[in-house]
Amino acid sequence: MIHEVLMPSRMIYGAGSLQRVGGLAKLWGTKALIVSDPVMLNNGLVERCSLYIAEMGMPYVSYCGVHTEPTTKHVEECLDICRAEGCDVVIAIGGGSCIDAAKAVAVLMTNEGSLDQYTPLGGQQFQSESLPLIAIPTTAGTGSEVTKVTVIIDTKSQVKMMISQPQLLPKAAIVDAELIKSCPPSVIASSGVDALCHAIEAYLSKKAQPITDVWALQAIQLMSKHLPIVYNQQASDHHYEQIALGAMLAGAAFSNASVTLIHGMSRPIGALFHIPHGISNAMLLPAVLEHMASRVSADRLANIHEMMTVEHKEGTAFAAIRSDGQTDQQKPIALKEKAASVLLAVKSLCCTLGIGNLSQYGIERQAYMNAISKMASDAIDSGSPANCPFIVTKQEIEQLYQACFDYRYD
Length: 410
Prior knowledge:
The protein has helices spanning 21-28, 38-42, 45-54, 72-85, 96-108, 185-204, 210-231, 237-257, 261-273, 277-293, 298-309, 316-320, 332-352, 358-361, 365-381, 394-405, and strands at residues 10-13, 32-35, 60-63, 89-94, 133-137, 149-154, 159-164, 172-175. It has two domains: 10-178, Rossmann fold (3-Layer(aba) Sandwich); 185-405, Dehydroquinate synthase-like - alpha domain (Dehydroquinate synthase-like, alpha domain), CATH 1.20.1090.10. 53% of the residues are buried. α1 crosses α3 and α7 (210-231) runs parallel beside α11 (298-309). The protein contains 16 helices and eight strands. It is α/β, with parallel strands linked by helices. The protein has a six-stranded parallel β-sheet with strand order 1-8-5-4-2-3, with helices on both faces. Strands 6-7 form a two-stranded antiparallel ribbon. The protein is globular, with a radius of gyration of 20 Å.
């Protein structure tokens, strides 16, 4: 088979790497647009970013209006500023919402039409490269800094649009673990489990390939080992660096191998009930994985279990990769036990991180049940469930939505 991998042309990571933003912006443009949110504005990170740009003698403007989940309203407001100010390079600093909004702005600056035309249902392809985009994540979760994906809520239809096209890939990613230290434990947990979802789904996707397998397994190992330590606020710089690296690898894996059922079901919940993306993924992960477990490769589930439970050793992820049909035939019982234990490992991690179910989050039961049919249709329309190695029906998804509401992790 022939495989293809798409990545940003520059990936800069390590403590203090934010200071490289000015040089990159100067390399690719003459006036910068900074896209961020009120949290980043208030904690001083937008100002720090601005100073590095100003040091290069480069003019800039900012838009800090992205709130929680990016919407078409945010994109339109930001696009108006970008056009009026004549910006030719875009810098996103913040969580996945800021980066996704910036991707949409950068690509609409050079392509006609509206975002809904470029969804799987819309069917159109971007014809021109976007403005150069420098993506700087401040959470260890979405991996949006290295993906060709943006997710934007259409405020008219209340649909969470997922668009995946090469033109959305950032020109550069700057991953500075120092920037995630200000995240509260709740954000660390939700964004971290989001990254774990990316890695698990990429590894189980029918579009998985050898390179994405390496990235996905390494990400599973890094997030499983270091995320609880960071969440419990017992972390050294090393632990922060490892979850930042894990989130980036998970993003690269799913950008090239796609996500599956968890993300397909998560987006409609976020669109209708305004739950942050990472949290809705986290609440769905155990129940949906349990449903998938009997229908995916036991070989791959065993590898995931190994990554979640073995001691962190250099090269372990590479050694664990096995193709279907090439497992150790002398230990079939051990293989089945590991495959069955994946769910226990995931539930244990969710309990450690304080992840609740949908009912515990405070969603009104009847409103949720009334929305199940629409959510199931929207999930299928997103295209993600089609990446499962088995056929998923609307009825099946509806039953899963019902089961997830009161799902017990213990």
